[in-house]
Amino acid sequence: MKLRHRLFDYAVILFSAALLALSYHIFIFPNEFAPAGIPGIATIVQHLFGFKVGYMTIIVNIPLVIIVFFLVDYAYAMRSAAFALTMSLVLLLLDYVDLSQFVYHTGNGTSTILAPAAGGVISGFCYGVVMRRNSSTGGTDLVAAIYHHYYPERNLLWVIFAINAMVAALSYFVYDFKIEPVILCLLYCFLSSKVSDTMLKGFKEAVKFEIVTDEPEVLSKALMDSLGHGVTELPAVGGFTHSNKTLLICVVNKHQIVEFQRIIQQYPGSFAYLSTVKETLGNFRREKVKK
After folding, report:
1. Burial (CB count <10 Å: 0-12, 13-18, 19+), residue 198
2. Would you tell me how many other CB atoms lie within 10 Å of the CB of residue 72?
3. How far apart, in whole angstroms, are the C-alpha atoms of residue 81 and residue 66?
4. Rounded to an integer, what distance in angstroms lies between the CA atom of residue 90 and that of residue 54?
5. Which one, out of 86, 206, 214, 259, has a CA that is 20 to 30 A from the CA of 49?
């Protein structure tokens, strides 16, 4: 079972790498802009000197993978190597495939922003998928992993931001001193970041209610009977009256908010507030309500 799970992880990583390489040929290379991170620098080098992105990503990632393998985490390094190698090979192989009927080219009058928008979404999806499997897309992520190994107390965001800012700035000079490639690069980075962030946080959003009440037993029973989710009780003390209270914590599905509000209205002496839960883990299934 463990081997099957590991093989499935590698299959997903390889598929994501191939998908990202395909998006480069369809949305990025035909249009004059550079994506984020190390691949963005490689795209600029390819545009200026004709040196293939596939070759450059291999050259850059090999030493980074070796360092991460020995210093950080060998499993993370092996998965990242699988992604980087697959993406590089697919990038090179697609040079010999006729993709003209699929290529989105903004030079023929179509919308300029759709290419980086589509490319950014695909990039964010691939990044989120591989990160959830203890892997990375190589390049900047490996640099960040090495940096974090030596300086775990420091924030890594500035490292990634600095690389992306450099790519965006270079785009102005590389692509005929035009501001549009800079904007397209920033759009690509923004969408890639937002989509990957959503992928990493998950889609199992819920709502957490915290209720201060004098009637914990009755209210807890009403909530569990109506909503089918458990309630946690914690002792609390009122700040003004210093009287003993009970804090109830209940996590419910978003569509149950109205029903929750209806129940709370029946207990005017209780006070409740809610917050969004980005993802639920473990046993959050809704138990069958007994009528």
Report:
1. middle
2. 15
3. 9
4. 8
5. 86
State CA 24 to chain mean position distance: 19
Q: How confident is the model over 168-189, as a mean pLDDT? A: 88
Angle, alpha carbons 37-60-104 (nearest 5°) = 50
Tokens of 129: 């998928």
Rounded CA-CA distance 39/139 in Å is 8
Pairing of strands 232-237, 206-213: unpaired
Per the CB < 8 A criterion, the answer to whether 14 and 79 are in contact is no
Three-state SS annotation for the chain: CHHHHHHHHHHHHHHHHHHHHHHHHHHHCCCCCCCCHHHHHHHHHHHHHCCCHHHHHHHHHHHHHHHHHHHCCHHHHHHHHHHHHHHHHHHHHHHHCCCCCCCCCHHHCCCCCHHHHHHHHHHHHHHHHHHCCCCCCCCHHHHHHHHHHHCCCCCCHHHHHHHHHHHHHHHHHHCCCCCHHHHHHHHHHHHHHHHHHHHHHCCCCEEEEEEEECCHHHHHHHHHHHHCCCCEEEEEECCCCCCEEEEEEEEECHHHHHHHHHHHCCCCCCEEEEEEECCCCCCCCCCCCCC
Q: Is 134:10 a contact under the CB 8 Å cutoff?
A: no
Burial of residue 10 (number of CB atoms within 10 Å: 0-12, 13-18, 19+): middle
CB distance 167 to 180 below 8 Å: no
What's the CA angle centered on 225, arms 289 and 263, to 5 degrees?
130
Average pLDDT over residues 30-52: 88
